[in-house]
Design a protein that fits this description.
single chain; alpha/beta; Nucleotidyltransferase, domain 5; 2 domains; eight-stranded mixed beta sheet; six-stranded mixed beta sheet; 15 helices; 14 strands; globular
Length: 398
């Protein structure tokens, strides 16, 4: 069984090809900066060198996906392989979708209807599904929702303190995101730590350009940092995370900004890049941090403090001290500085960082980063593999 996994972002398309239950993709590809003059793409088969996508011109998600696939089709190693199922990452499933589903016209319409809840992602997600249907006619497609894992959260956790009519009419509530990653690393952490997932208390911190943290009790999400949209919660690469809800009104009156301008400011010009004025890339900021740049230091300090505060708050939903804190995502897996500073803020929990283990885990290898005789919870780095999780879900339905 050959499964193609597609992830359409607001300005990018990523794909991966998986065979059966092998967690290592046989090929990957990506196109970035879609619909701009700086569009670029690449693909890779196995461990071979990365190849640039030829004849890539400015276009939409469908054109980008087609270009990436054409690159892969040109590879001799992939000749004769036919895609038997397609799996899609879809950011928002609203209240209706609590599990992966096969795509049909109604499902596609529901995804498009959720655009007000995920304005940056819903339409690109739908475009990716439509493009795949044209490129692979008759091949079954499955959508896996980032919000689905969090549908187990209780009303006292997901409801906002706003008039009930707004919830009933517009489904305004906390949804949570990155669910596919949180579910995957929770299972992996339980396996690595020899824990019974169905009798465990875990906190997962998925840290990348988008960041969220989730409390996982007995294998189920019971609280998470993101809310109605992926803007709520932690400080992120370009997103502000939590702030005073009256800021929109203040900026409209005092700075003369429109609602759309404020929304764009908080989603694309805030977070690490807003605080530092340098970059949203943690690697760049870490270099500047060690060079003594005060703006980079402030950005990382705020990022880690806010993360630690969120982790501490999530323990309420666990009804006890977590057995383990999981770091994952591009930053979580690679930044030993972020892990060290975050655990320092969580001193009351009793974490005892092992500097040598933290250094090794900084090379993106999964592993425990606290000492063996630590009196507090275990901190562990787990490499996420959302694409494989999507492939597994797709295989189950096809």
């Amino acid at each position: 069984m050959l499964i193609l996994v597609i992830n359409c972002g607001s300005s990018s398309v990523k794909l991966a090809l998986f065979l059966a239950n092998d967690s290592t993709p046989i090929a990957t590809g990506a196109v970035d900066s879609i619909s701009t003059q700086s569009i670029e793409g690449h693909y890779r088969v196995g461990d071979s060198p990365r190849q640039s996508i030829a004849c890539l011109s400015q276009g939409d998600h469908a054109a980008a996906l087609d270009a990436a696939l054409n690159g892969l089709r040109s590879e001799p190693a992939l000749k004769g392989l036919n895609v038997t199922a397609v799996g899609h990452r879809v950011v928002h499933g609203g209240q209706k979708f609590s599990a992966p589903v096969l795509v049909d016209a109604n499902v596609l319409a529901e995804i498009r209807a959720l655009a007000p809840l995920a304005p940056v992602h819903a339409i690109p997600n739908a475009l990716g599904i439509e493009a795949a249907a044209r490129l692979f006619p008759g091949v079954p497609q499955v959508v896996v929702f980032d919000t689905a894992f969090h549908q187990s959260i209780a009303p006292e956790v997901y409801r906002y303190a706003i008039p009930d009519t707004l919830y009933q009419k517009h489904q305004i509530r906390r949804y949570g995101f990155h669910g596919t990653s949180h579910a995957y690393v929770a299972e992996e952490a339980a396996r690595l730590l020899n824990l019974d997932l169905s009798n465990s208390r875990l906190i997962s911190a998925h840290l990348g350009n988008g960041c969220s943290a989730t409390a996982i009790l007995n294998g189920k999400s019971v609280d998470t940092s993101m809310g109605l949209t992926p803007l709520e919660g932690l400080v992120m690469g370009t997103r502000s995370g939590n702030l005073d809800p009256n800021l929109h009104n203040f900026l409209a009156k005092e700075a003369g900004l429109s609602l759309d301008e404020i929304t764009d400011l908080l989603n694309r010009k805030s977070g690490l890049i807003g605080l530092s004025g340098i970059s949203n890339d943690l690697r760049v900021l870490t270099e500047e941090y060690h060079a003594g740049n005060p703006s980079a230091r402030l950005a990382i300090d705020v990022f880690c403090f806010r993360l630690a505060r969120e982790i501490a708050g999530l323990t309420v939903a666990l009804k006890g001290m977590p057995h383990a804190l999981i770091f994952t995502g591009g930053i979580g897996e690679n930044s030993k500085l972020v892990r060290e500073k975050t655990l320092t803020h969580l001193a009351a929990f009793g974490f005892e960082l092992d500097p040598v283990r933290n250094e090794i885990a900084g090379s993106s290898s999964s592993g425990i980063i606290t000492t063996d005789d630590s009196n507090g919870p275990t901190a562990i780095v787990v490499a996420t593999n959302e694409e494989f999780a999507i492939a597994q879900a797709t295989a189950k339905l096809c």
